[in-house]
Amino acid sequence: MSHYNFKKITVVPPSKDFIDIVLSKTQRKTPTVIHKQYRIGRIRHFYMRKVKFAQQTFHDKLTQILTDFPKLEEVHPFYADLMNVLYDKDHYKLALGQINTARHLVDNVAKDYSRLLKYGDSLYRCKQLKKAALGRMCTIMKRQKQSLEYLEQVRQHLSRLPSIDPNTRTLLICGFPNVGKSSFINKVFSHSLFLYMCTQASTITVVRLSDTRGKKGRTSKSYTKLVRWDK
C-alpha cells in the first residue's frame, strides 16, 4: 500500500477530557438508581456493571488510538524515515507503547475489582469498591498526559502532510519564502508544455512535482502537479 490517509486518525483528547468523556458516558449508559433494600446479588451486579462499562469504554478508545496511528514497521520506508526525522521513532514508539500498557492496566483493574465485588456484603462496601476501581482507572489515564498530548501533536502534523505516492518519481521544489518557487513551476510546467509532451512522447513517465512553502520550519504545501515526459 502506497497511499495513507492520515487525515482519518481520530482526535486524541487530553487526559482530563479523556477521563471526563468516559465517566460521563458511564453515568449516562448505566442504571443510576439503587436501594439498600435490594438483594445483595442485585447490588453487586449494579456496581459491577458500572466498572465493566467504564473499563470497556477506556479499552475501546485506547484501542482506537493504537489502531489509527501508523506502525513504522508496516508503512512504506519513505514514510517510516519521514516520521523518524519529524517525530523521532523512539519517542513515537514509546508513546504508543505507554498507551498499550495503560490499556492492559485498566483491564486488570476492572478484573480485580469485579472479583472483589462478588464478595461485597453491603451496598456501602460495593459502592466503595466501584469508586476505588474507577479512581484507579482515572489515575492510570492521568499518567498518560504527556503521551496523549504528544500523539495529538503528531496527529495534527500528519493530517497536514501532502499525499505522496512513494512509488512515483517525485521532484521537490524547495527554497526560502517568496523566491519564486510556484512561479517557476507555473512557467516551466505550463499547460501548453504539458500537452506538447503528451502528444510528442511515445513512451511516457509520470513524475510528481511537489511545491513547498519555504524553508522556515513550516510544513509542505499540499499542492502537487503531475508532469509527463518521454524517457
TrEMBL record:
Superkingdom field: Eukaryota
SUPFAM superfamilies the UniProt entry points to: P-loop containing nucleoside triphosphate hydrolases
Query: For the NOG1 N-terminal helical domain, which residue ranges apply?
Result: 6-165
Protein name listed in UniProt: Nucleolar GTP-binding protein
Q: Which organism is it from?
A: Mytilus galloprovincialis (Mediterranean mussel)
